[in-house]
Each structure stands twice: as structure tokens, then as C-alpha cells.
Design a protein that fits this description.
Radius of gyration: 20 Å
Number of strands: 19
Number of helices: 9
Strand content: 25-35%
Structural class: alpha/beta
């Protein structure tokens, strides 16, 4: 059995509900024959991280090291790992294990995030009872199938947000077959939305960006949107009603607003939820019958979709807009994200080098 090189992993953990994290270390589970040990160089901050450490989704297991946008180098590999070598630069997203068996009704359909044996990157437990911890740390051990080679053409500092935010918005576009010439709406131009614009545009769609912030107009058009709609401007909204084949919702819009979103759709259009707004949706069944619009959702990307995300991102030069912070200033970075001021993703650097500070 191959032994890992790091016997104690040092990171930044939430010890109780709130925004603050503090230094904490843990002994990693033994390196399995299909696992890799990764020395983390970059870690992105995702909105899910904040929801978890603040226990807004309930069930947080403290101490908790979060972070599921991880990029680093393989320093040890299990004896059965052949597709990765020590020194490879890899990324890890929001999941670190699934059975991936052909007999599994979810894994066999590229829906491994729903596998009964799934383990998410943090705030989850392995079958042996060990708790999974994430990327706000100096290292991590994961199943090698969930460590993805970063293409040489992608600057590593820009890669972390592709592992979650990028894959999360691209996955439903692939599954639903978004194609050239279709009109695709993106509502919420933030960490997810600014990437969704780029992917939809690269697929050949006519992209309509919706935001209540008119100062984002130029940037949205620069990212690939054909039309910008200020949602506070009734004339602009009315002009777009009944024209969308797809609407990807990346913002935590009030659940009561979804009834109006249906009016933006063409017949048989699809509204895809990528965020988790508070409250319940209350709509008359007649809205669905008369519009023939479907409302659905999408979780995260599985193994095959994540591979395609990285390949597509490299081919079409899709990159996130980021701010960089050294890992030592993680609490300042978390506050920045929580305030909504970050544009648009924050990446933590373990090597302490940053262009922002």
C-alpha cells in the first residue's frame, strides 16, 4: 500500500456557524489504491462555501474545511492510478467520490453527483465514517477519477472557478442541447452568470443577459451577450417577453418572481434553476398549461461533463473574472465575497503571491 507524503493537513476551518475560519489541522484518511494526494496551490471561494460555514443550509459538521474549487499538483498516487502522474496539475470540483459502476442507474447516465455512494468535497462522510474536508488547506486526498488534468493553455490561477462555477453552468447546457441560433437568457450576472454568458455564446446561442445593475451592461456585452436587459426597466423587459428558448437562473431571485419569468419564455421553453432561492414557488398550474414552459434544475457536473467543461473552456478561451488573495487573508476574502462586492470569483493562493494585494 502506498503511503501519503503528508501525514497532517493544515487548513482553515469553520469551528461554529459564522463567516470566520481559523487555522486547524487534521489527519487525512489512508491513501486508497485509487486515490491521489494533491498539494493545493489555488482554491476558489464559492457561494456554497459561505452557506455551509454559516450553516444556512443546516447540517454543517464542525470543524469544517470548505472549498471545492481546488487546483494543485499530484504528489502521491495510489497503486492502481495510471491516468495521472506525480507532478500533474489537476483540479478538483464539488465531488470526490462515486461508484462509477456501469450498473449504477445514475453513474451510467453521467449523473454521478446523484450516486447513492457519492461523497462531496466537504461536509460529507466517506463510507468508513471519515469526514471529507475541502480546499482551504495545503493538501487534499481524493479519488483519482475526480482529479482532472488542467489543460496547458489555461493559466492555473484562473482554473479553480471552472471546477465548480464553470461546470455547474455548462452541465445543463450540454444535457439540454443548447445550440447555435437559440435565444438563451442568463439572469444574475455574478460568479455563475458571467461564465454562463461565455459558455452559451461559445455554443452559438444568442445570449440575453438580465441584471438589475445597468453598470454591468458593457461587461456583459464584452463577455458575449448579444442583448442586455435591465430588469428594472419595464420597456426592456417587455421587449424580450415570449422570446427565450432557455433561461438559466444563477441568482437567488425571490421565489415569488418565477411566475413572471415564465412570461419571458417562448412556448416549450425551459427555465433552469442553478441557485437556491429562499421560500416556495407558488404558481397556478394554468401557467404551465398555457405557456407549455418547463421549470427544472441542475446540481453539479459529473466526471464526464467536467472533463468536457475543461476541454471546451480551453478551446474557446473561457476564463472567469477573478480577484486574488493570499490564503493567509482568507477571512478578508470571505467577507469580500459575502458583501457581494467581489468581481466575480475570488481565488486564494497558497504561495502567497497575488496581484490584488
Amino acid at each position: 500500500m502506498v503511503e501519503g507524503k503528508i501525514n497532517e493537513i493544515h487548513g482553515w476551518a469553520a469551528m461554529k456557524p459564522g463567516l470566520k475560519v481559523e487555522p486547524w489541522s487534521y489527519k487525512p484518511r489512508p491513501l486508497g489504491e485509487n486515490d491521489v494526494e494533491i498539494k493545493i496551490e489555488y482554491s476558489g471561494i464559492c457561494g456554497s462555501d459561505l452557506h455551509t460555514i454559516k450553516e444556512e443550509w443546516s447540517g454543517t459538521m464542525y470543524p469544517a474545511i470548505v472549498g471545492h474549487e481546488i487546483v494543485g499538483k499530484v504528489i502521491t498516487k495510489g497503486e492502481n492510478v495510471t491516468h495521472l502522474q506525480e507532478g500533474d496539475l489537476v483540479g478538483v470540483g464539488a465531488q470526490v467520490h462515486a461508484c462509477l459502476e456501469s450498473s449504477c442507474k445514475t453513474c451510467s447516465r453521467d449523473l454521478d453527483p446523484h450516486c447513492p455512494h457519492k461523497v462531496f468535497t466537504y461536509n460529507a462522510k466517506y463510507a468508513d465514517g471519515a469526514q471529507a474536508h475541502g480546499g482551504y488547506a495545503d493538501a487534499v486526498r481524493v479519488n483519482s477519477n475526480y482529479a482532472f488534468k488542467i489543460p496547458d493553455t489555461i493559466d492555473p490561477v484562473y482554473a479553480p472557478p471552472l471546477m465548480c462555477a464553470g461546470a455547474t453552468v455548462f452541465a445543463p447546457m450540454l444535457r439540454k442541447g443548447v445550440k447555435k441560433g437559440e435565444r438563451v437568457g442568463i439572469i444574475g450576472i455574478g460568479g455563475l452568470g458571467h461564465l454562463a454568458i461565455q459558455y452559451a455564446s461559445a455554443l452559438g446561442a444568442e445570449v440575453v443577459a438580465f441584471s438589475h445593475s445597468p453598470n454591468k451592461r458593457d461587461q456583459c456585452l464584452g463577455l458575449g451577450a448579444s442583448i442586455f436587459v435591465n430588469t428594472a426597466n419595464k420597456e426592456e423587459v417587455d421587449a424580450i417577453r415570449g422570446t427565450l428558448q432557455y433561461l438559466f437562473v444563477t441568482s437567488n431571485s425571490n421565489a415569488s418572481e418565477y411566475g413572471d419569468l415564465i412570461s419571458w419564455m417562448d412556448y416549450e421553453g425551459q427555465i433552469v434553476l442553478l441557485a437556491l432561492p429562499e421560500g416556495n414557488m407558488e404558481m397556478s398550474p394554468g401557467k404551465f398549461v398555457r405557456s407549455e414552459v418547463a421549470i427544472t434544475g441542475s446540481l453539479i457536473a459529473g466526471v464526464n461533463v467536467l472533463k468536457k467543461t475543461l476541454e471546451f473552456s480551453a478551446e474557446h478561451k473561457i476564463l472567469p473574472v477573478i480577484e486574488q488573495y493570499p490564503m493567509s487573508k482568507i477571512n478578508e476574502a470571505l467577507e469580500r465575497v459575502d458583501s457581494g462586492k467581489a468581481r466575480y470569483r475570488v481565488v486564494l493562493l497558497n504561495n502567497e503571491q497575488t496581484s490584488n494585494l
